[in-house]
TrEMBL record:
Its EC number is 3.1.3.25. Belongs to the inositol monophosphatase superfamily. It comes from the Eukaryota. GO terms for biological process: inositol biosynthetic process; phosphatidylinositol phosphate biosynthetic process; signal transduction. The lineage of its organism: Eukaryota, Fungi, Dikarya, Basidiomycota, Agaricomycotina. This is Inositol-1-monophosphatase. It comes from Calocera viscosa (strain TUFC12733).
């Protein structure tokens, strides 16, 4: 296939990617049984950054199938990146893959892990497929063609709600693998401002409805696309955690932003931010006579970032 893709090519690639996600899902389920029996888990950067042989095996399976079907496409995968295969991102069609997103859940038997398959085309997230085989939930999207769950239900399934302020928000956040005092301090102060009660000694507190820490960045994006979470913020994710989710969330009316500085200026995510490791995603908002969805998204992200102390992820 030429490296210039037609719409027909993209349609075929989406079909291929969905089938590949389901095939990978079978291996993830097999791996879950094996790992829960063997407890054979290794550490990467530290004791909370986990990997199993199945992370590697699923990536090998996926990489092999992509090489067979699309030999000219580039491939960036979490496990091969960790092993030193780090191709430079070019305009060529590039699969950006997390074989198991939510490895901590995977090793605990918490049924919230997935494969995340993103296709970057001309550096832009263009196709996204995220499959949780434990719950048989498959999210898919192509740029300009909508986002779906299980290929039938277009997202969001319900009309987007208004978003008056952060106070009404249910927010995805994660613990991450950097547990240093400096990062934990910034994180907990950030969370205190977002969740704290201004009437009870937290003057800057927004008293948001709550946080959810579900353990998979890709599935957090899908939850935002579905309107189950209002937003999700994390520092420290990698392109393979978000490439597919970005397409799914945007196609469901959501918007993605980067770091605090660019977001408070109202700048939405652009392709040069893919490796920025600071991402925030927000659901679509009902248009009102006073404010369009895109304006409401910027307003809420700005409010969110007024609570955030950022750090640099090593
Ligand atoms: C991680 C998960 C986790 C998020 C981390 C990711 P992994 O991916 O998505 O929820 O907090 O930033 O690295 O290690 O399970 O593939
Ligand atoms: Ca992973």
């Amino acid at each position: 296939m030429a490296s210039t893709l037609t719409q027909k090519d993209l349609d075929e690639i989406l079909t291929f990617t969905i089938a590949l996600a389901r095939k990978a899902g079978e291996l993830i389920l097999e791996g879950s049984k094996a790992i829960l029996a063997s407890h054979d888990v290794s550490e990467k950067k530290n004791a909370v950054d986990l990997v199993t042989e199945y992370d590697v095996r699923v990536e090998e399976l996926v990489r092999g199938e992509i090489e067979k079907a699309y030999p000219s496409f580039a491939f960036i995968g979490e496990e091969s990146y960790a092993a030193g295969k780090r191709p430079e991102l070019t305009d060529a069609p590039t699969f950006c893959v997390d074989p198991i997103d939510g490895t901590t859940n995977f090793v605990h038997g918490f049924p919230h892990a997935c494969i995340s398959l993103g296709l970057l085309y001309k550096r832009e997230p263009t196709i996204g497929v995220v499959f949780n085989p434990f719950l048989n939930q498959l999210y898919s999207a192509m740029k300009g063609h909508g986002a779906y769950v299980n290929e039938l239900t277009r997202l969001p399934a319900n009309p987007p709600a208004p978003f008056p302020s952060l106070q009404t928000a249910l927010i995805g956040m994660e613990w991450g693998s950097d547990r240093s005092a400096s990062t934990m301090g910034k994180k907990t102060r950030t969370f205190t401002r977002i969740a704290g009660d201004p009437a009870h000694d937290i003057p800057e507190g927004k008293m948001a409805h709550g946080f959810r820490s579900l353990g998979s960045a890709a599935l957090n994006y899908c939850a935002v696309a579905a309107g189950q979470l209002d937003m999700y913020w994390e520092i420290g994710c990698w392109p393979w955690d978000v490439a597919a989710g970005i397409v799914i969330a945007r196609e469901a009316g959501g918007e993605v932003f980067g770091d605090k500085e660019s977001s408070v200026q109202g700048k939405v995510f652009t392709d040069d931010m893919l490796w920025g490791r600071k991402y925030i995603v927000i659901r679509g908002v009902a248009d009102s006579p006073q404010e369009k969805s895109s304006e409401a998204q910027k307003r809420i992200v700005k409010e969110f970032y007024s609570c955030v102390e950022e750090w640099e992820q090593s």
